[in-house]
Amino acid sequence: MTNGKGVFCEKLLSLDKQMAESCFDEAARCGQPLVCGLYKRFDPAVQFLHKKVHNKALGRIHRIVSVSRTYPSLSLSYIKKTGGIFYDGVVHDLDTVCWLLGENAPDTIFSLGHAFCQEIAALKDADTISVSMKFASGAIVTLDVSQHCTRSSDQRLEVHGSEGTLRMDNRNALGITEQGTPRPVCSHLHHDRYKDAYRDLLKHFLKTLKGKEEPFITKENFLWTIQVAAAAEQSWRNGSAVDLRNEALDGTVIKTEVP
Q1: Which of 128, 123, 110, 94 is nearest to 228 (CA)?
Q2: How confident is the model at residue 170 (pLDDT cuts 50, 70, 90)?
């Protein structure tokens, strides 16, 4: 940025709050865009849901249920670099639901999880997580995040409101629904499922370089997202709910790298 170039960060900028803040501040000082890769916001189906929620087509939002099961499973070396399931998987769904609701963070959050894979357990991480949240608006959100999906990527999202429900289902290139087949007719890899989101995210970055758009993810968005991810992990490790209603964005290091 100091050399007059915009920056696209495909992963989280940093899990160190001070470092992340300094990156955003430097971008502002240099007048260059800093775009973070929270890609699920850019998925066309998620964009459609956001427009409907924003336009009150569903009325008051009561419930959101998100399922995100990755296929194929991530490698151990990759998990070590990204900080674990809360900072590579859960964080994207947290960002999505907070954006849909127009709220920075839930009031309360509670997580349950387990490592079915011994190698993951050795990293003191989980490979299957359930996160429950309640927001100030009254909306209750459940996230089901897993690194185990043996047939095809499982990505679903339901938004329930006082005036109706919209659901984002799994889809494949053939448009075929399977029931009871021993092998998947059309396996869907995670990066295939979100190829449109990745494409539109890169288009967004190019537009920011030309000054046609401002970065979609702001400093406040990013800091709150990693703070909520940290609260979700804290809840899992401590076995108790975390109250975020009076939480300030304090603490320098949100999460250190998995050893």
Answers
A1: 94
A2: confident
Give, for 34, the enclosing helix (H) or strand (E): strand 34-36
Q: Identify the H or E element spanning 21.
A: helix 17-30
Say how many CA atoms lie within 13 Å of 13 toward its Cβ. 26
Question: What's the pLDDT tens digit per position in 119-145?
Answer: 999 999 999 999 999 999 999 999 999
What whole-number distance in Å separates Cα of residue 116 and Cα of residue 22?
A: 38
* Residue bearing tokens 């990527």: 153
Residue 252: which residues within 8 A CB-CB, separation 6 or more?
Answer: 16, 17, 18
* Residue 95 CB contacts under 8 Å (≥ 6 apart), including other chains: 38, 40, 41, 217, 221, 225
Q: What is the pTM of this model?
A: 0.88
The arithmetic mean of pLDDT across residues 25-29, rounded, is: 95
Residue 89 in contact with residue 39, Cβ under 8 Å? Answer: no
Question: Beta strands 242-243 and 108-114: pairing type?
Answer: antiparallel
Cis peptide before 72 (omega within 30 of 0): yes
- What is the average pLDDT across 68-73? 83
